[in-house]
Amino acid sequence: MKSSLTWTAGIAACLVALGMTSAHGPRFQRVYPLKPREGVFAYARISPNGRFLAYASEARDSRNRLARTVTVVDLKRNTILFTEPGIDAYWSTDGGRMIFLSQESRPSVAIRDHRTGTVLRDIAPVWLGDYFSWGKRDDRDLILTIDSHYYFLEDDHAVLPPASVQPCAGIGVGERPLLSRDGKRITTFVRGTVVVRNLTDCGDIVDTGIRGAKADFAWDSRYVALHAPKPDASGYEIQVVDLQRRTVRSVTNFPGSSFFPSWTKDGRLCFRYDGEDYRGFMMADDVLSAPERPLPSSDEHIPARRVWADVFPETALPPHHLNLVTVWSTWSAHSPDALQDLQRARRYFEEHALDVGVMTATDPGSRRADVADLVRRYEIVLPEIPLAPRRLPLTEGHNQIPSTLLFRDGMLVDRRLGAQTYDDLRVWIQKVESQ
Asked: How do residues 274-302 score in pLDDT, each as one tens digit?
């Protein structure tokens, strides 16, 4: 593996021919391939200096059980430095530590000191949430979670009680936020689009109008990188938003899909790529050389009122009081769990004579051969209904895959982003039935 990000003229010319770069634009390097059948659970994060990659490797063990392992890779030496069962690793701003949800023997929020190898456990209550992001505000380390809770660290332990992101007029709290490195701003999902706002107040709200996901701040907080559907809905591309100029750049233009961008301190982007030509992690340099265009209008929000025919007009409304539809993709490591739990919930509904229809739909960016392979491998027998590419935004699956929609008498009454467990689904249905 090459450690330099400067490619020879011959290699660059080959990549131009393959559509992997252009003569005048971002430059790309393959930095770490995934193993066959290896998945990645949620995001991966590059260290500030770009040398170390942390991701949750997902693979089957010898007993065919699904195992998720936080894995730290030295990209310069192409060696694995650390592994432990767990998910959601995120680097400190100095790159010396890493927070993650350990699943070593039981769930525990942990911090690993990269310099000593020491792991501190139970540094914060698990119920505050995972999907961590780490900033430094007023010279204090600050952690934000998926549930919009945040807390400072003292001696690498949470200062409690925590605080929570407060709602703002017109946007509410938002969902699944990520924190800027200076600890002052967050990106969040609001009715289908990525919105940037202050962490502690409602000032300086920027609705990007982009139906994207996993929006990561550059170190100067001016730029945000995210992945969003390609214009033809054939997959996903990396986009970079300039919050000052209110513009956006499409950085990647590959045959496959690019996901989960993460900034280095010197302005490079590490991201995951999934295509027939390559599956693994890549690095992009000179990303701001991509042409910019104005942000879309902020009226790209998903309408609050949606009915079955708006989202799935190709399929007649099933004759059930309640209908669940899970939108999934082959590139999301969350999908197998979500489908298996959905299938188990369907059996429960049938055994208890509950009037609940259960269906699936695939993200249009998933290749049909991959869909068939995953369904066969995990023995999924759930019915599938078509989802037209232009209607994917109505499911909010572009923000988070899987996404599950709940219809009551043809009206969308709720939706949940991310994989839902068997218990989540049962409680959800019981709650809606009792209303």
From this structure: 988 899 999 999 999 999 999 987 666 67
Q: Where are the domains of the chain?
A: 9-300, 308-434
CATH architecture under which domain 308-434 falls:
3-Layer(aba) Sandwich (3.40)
DSSP letter for each residue of 1-46: ----SPPPHHHHHHHHHHTS--SSS-EEEEEEEPPTT-EEEEEEEE
- Three-state DSSP state, 288: helix
Number of neighbouring beta carbons within 10 Å of residue 109? 26
Give the CA dihedral 393, 395, 397, 400, nearest 10 degrees: 120
CA–CA separation, 270 vs 405, rounded Å? 32
**Tell me: the pLDDT tens digits for 78-93?**
999 999 999 999 999 9
Is-contact 344 310, C-beta < 8 A?
A: no
Residue 242 has pLDDT above 80, yes or no: yes
Selection from 295, 231, 233, 228 nearest residue 260 by Cα: 228
Comparing C-alpha atoms, which of 340, 368, 374, 345 is closest to residue 358? 345
Q: Which CATH number fits domain 9-300: 2.120.10.30, 3.40.50.300, 1.10.287.3510, 2.40.160.100?
A: 2.120.10.30
Buried b / exposed e along 347-374 (16+ C-beta atoms within 10 A): eebeeeebebbbbbbbbbbbbeeebeeb
Q: What is the DSSP string of 291-343?
A: -EEEPPPGGGSPPS--BHHHH-TTSPPPSSSEEEEEEE-SS-TTHHHHHHHHH
Of all residues in the chain, the percent with pLDDT exceeding 70 is 93
Q: What is the pLDDT of residues 359-395, one digit of tens each?
A: 999 988 788 888 998 899 889 999 999 999 888 888 8
